[in-house]
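User: Structure tokens for this complex, please. No commentary.
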Amino acid sequence: MKKIAFASGKGGAGKTSLSMSFHKYAKDNSLFADCDVDAADAFLLLEKEIQHKKPFYSGLKYKIDENKCIQCGKCADSCNFNAIKKTDKYYIEEFSCEGCSLCEDICKYNAIESRSNCCGELFISDTVFNTKMIYARLIPGEDNSGKLVHEVKKIAHEQVLSAEKEFLVIDCPPGIGCPLMAAISGINLLVIIIECSQSGFKDAVRLINLSKKMKIPYITVINKSGLNPDIDNNIEKYLADNEIFSAGKIPFDKEFVYLLNRKKLIIDSDILSGNLKNIFSQIKNRIEMEK
Amino acid sequence: MNSAYPHWKKGPGPMNSISIAFASGKGGTGKTSLAANFAKFLSHEKNVLLSDLDVEEPNVSIFFPENEKPGSSYNSKITIPEVDLNKCTYCGKCAQKCNFNAIAVYQDKISIFQELCKGCGRCSNICEAGAINLIESEVGKVNEYSSESLEITEGILNTGNIHTKSLITDVKKYRHRDINIYDCPPGTTCPMVESVLDADFTVLVTEPTPFGLHDLSLAVEVMEKLNKKFGVIINKSGDNDHIIEDYCKKGNYDILEKIPFDRTIAEKCGRGEFYYDDENYRIKMNNIYNHITGKIK
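Assistant:
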């Protein structure tokens, strides 16, 4: 079983559009995992019916018991995240708290209580083309997205094995921080989508550097080309100079948005599908080469 | 606190200073280009600081390729444990108590996983042998520069580092002006929350697609949880705007402005060029500002 992930560093570069379409292209032998737990969107187009869901517990939430608290402020002084604040009385600012429990240790009056925290939900669903997708929804404003990404991948791994499929197609979160690293750790191939803009290029280079550091095999796809030929040339030169494989190029086309607004996949477009199938077959060859 | 700059003094910003955050659930909706255009537009008449809080992938700088006046650069740090092996008794209490699984203790070995450590210091507090000291570890950089009268601060997270939130806090505490504009990271979880937490007003930038709408609704949930003032800008606006308009009407959320889906704008943003020099967009920027100041008062 092999895991292939689509990422870009920058948001809006085409990760979800491309990964969903690649999954449909390889639907006979793949399942789909949406690891963008902050803003999971693929279900809007792919999901037919939820088969199974379960809550996700992670981290701790704290409360100060006003009856026990003597307002000494020692907990606030020791908190490294400035999460304990005072108006007339001390309180815990939930959004700044990292859940370390140091305040519980510090308080000699046992005035701080903790409880485990439900911060999201996991889903296993049937898709519109009769495969399975696994995704999660972190409750907006919550923490622990990296752990939830791990959980999505773990469940997806089991599902791929039990369905006897060859691949897991992963849609990654944006950025290069904790959730992204959780999404790409242990995968067999990373497809880096380079949006043809200054920011798309810059972000992709940071992602390439991270992949090198994490020793993850990667290839690239160029998206939204043709807006600024100079930038396109710079990207192609960079890829050639660094001997980075490009599976192909997708021109900027309003058809992308037109299709999305009709909840259709780009692989089903008469205009786009020819080029996409070429790119996907290159990606597929590549993953078959990876161990 | 987690990190400090040698010259930095904690204190309130200028009197009546305001902070405006540009955020969105979805990535690629145009937060950075809008924040940069808006900040640059305002800076012709006002004292403005633009802060790039998308520290994993900071892109404000592409709009200022010739930042004539590069300023200082600082390391952003957190404190992590360092074990004094002469004192360590390998009792394992630090590992048991670490909520982030960042310490493992074996019979005669102790390992600290820096990439998991959040820098809380609980291990050091719990250690009876006094074997754990807290030392500084770099998570990224804070750079300052300026473009004409606009001042800019950006955070850049070191590749492979996970302390996004800590770096965002550092970028913000660094300096304040009359108007502080934040370019926020995408998403709806801790980095985004940390970015908007102290903003007086948050602009949620969306696009009229099913993804844009869904992620806008998540971002609105965060705003309501935090009890924050906010308004919506429809970027890449066109013939599908009704999906956002219907949603905003239902929830009684303000739409501040619309920026059309236009190839010329896409090209300009792609190159890191401003579009507010066009009279139509100057009017839009001014409308956004007036709307926001009206809401804050």
